[in-house]
Fold:
Amino acid sequence: MAKPRIPTVKGTRDFYPEDMALRRWLYEHMRAVSEAFGYQEYDGPFLETLELYAAKSGEELVKEQAFVFPDRGGDLITLRPELTPSLARMVAQRQKQLTLPLRWWSFGPFWRYERPQRGRGREFFQWNVDMVGVATPEGDAELAAVGASFFRRVGLQPDQVRILVNNRRLMDAQLERLGIRAGLRKAVFRLIDRKEKMRPEAWEAYAAKIGLSPTQIQGLYDLFQRHDLWETSDELRRFFAAAEALGVAEYVRYEPTIIRGLDYYTGTVFEARDHEGRFRAILGGGRYDNLVAAVGGEPLPGVGFAMGDMVITLVLEAYGLRPALPLTPAQVLVTVFDDAHLLPSLRLAQELRAAGFRVATYPQPAKLGKQFKYANRLSIPVVAVLGPDELAQGAVALKHMGRGEQVTVRREQAVATLRAWLAVGSPGEGA
RNA sequence: GUGGCCGUAGCUCAAUGGCAGAGCACCUGACUGUGGAUCAGGUGGUUGGGGGUUCAAAUCCCCUCGGCCACCCCA
Structure:
């Protein structure tokens, strides 16, 4: 414990090979799902100006939570806390030449200066998916379908993880019906957002404090029971019809208490939660119709969501879905019998690499037991032995570690044997 | 940024003021050209770091760093 004299920065993680393998696994599934829906990969800078976030409806939240520091010239630099403002700028910059609607996705690091907790660090990775230039409920449903398709792909079932959906315009109309004036609705949205996190008495006290009457508070309670409320919204009726057509009906559900914290959402909002509610939101997103305008472009509608790597990892672990990934890409370990066989072993390894196999050599002569143990620990599926006997006969001994089966074949036949052994489901190929 | 719990071997944890331990892991050997099993032996720690109280501190106090929990906010 006292070993790391130089600690990591608070809230950051080292990615050892096994961690990196999982990150890459997540990335591969995100890429596959994004591309299945025709989304293009893009990225923005990791460093941005503070102005970019200040421009975004002057949200103090983002400014207070971001890593901001002066560069050597004295300009204030921000480690990006989210991607949407960068996306808005990139779109605004090439608004005239981009082919709309555009479908873009990205996976990369983000930073937020927060108190680290389980599922929340100061440096994390996030999958962002956005569609810009179209303002239809079917577009909203497509984004939800991308998220749901990811869950399905990694093995999360609809009874384990679900995307809860609501619509701010619908809620706005409902609040108006309750006689809650427009100036108060932003605060009431925040109130609704905190419904699940507070005890009823505290929540009601908070509601009264922001100016709601007992009748209005009761009206909100009634609203929260209205799981059929979506039927009164044309947008949501179309949303759920599209979700059904997209094959993800079982993953989406109307939930009147979902409102999302961010101010820039204007229409449909959604977030994914685990069924037991043990974890914070797995993904969150919604429709934002004024974003590009905030950084100087013509107004363009958009819809998107973001999913962080930390919570989804916890959820996968909770449901036993964290995959067992290969520890090493090596398919073959070529042993080194003794000094005299070192160079011949290197030649054999290179021969096998030339044939397309991923081959590691033991880096120095050692007892064969030690070398086999090394292969076993790293789960390298095949061990090749080139000792005095094999060398004299122009042969090589190949051992299939999983089956414990060993054959001695002529050197020219080694490749064919390996092809047969490693043909399907060979480790290291990913999913 | 506020309040709270925690930090002992690589890992999971004991020891609650009195000689820092166990299991697993690791290394060596039994097995001189073969891993995963078994048996025997062995390495491993300034108890997160610093200061204080005490004859004596992993244990009590203060500071600090880190993790976790609740706020806050959100991925």
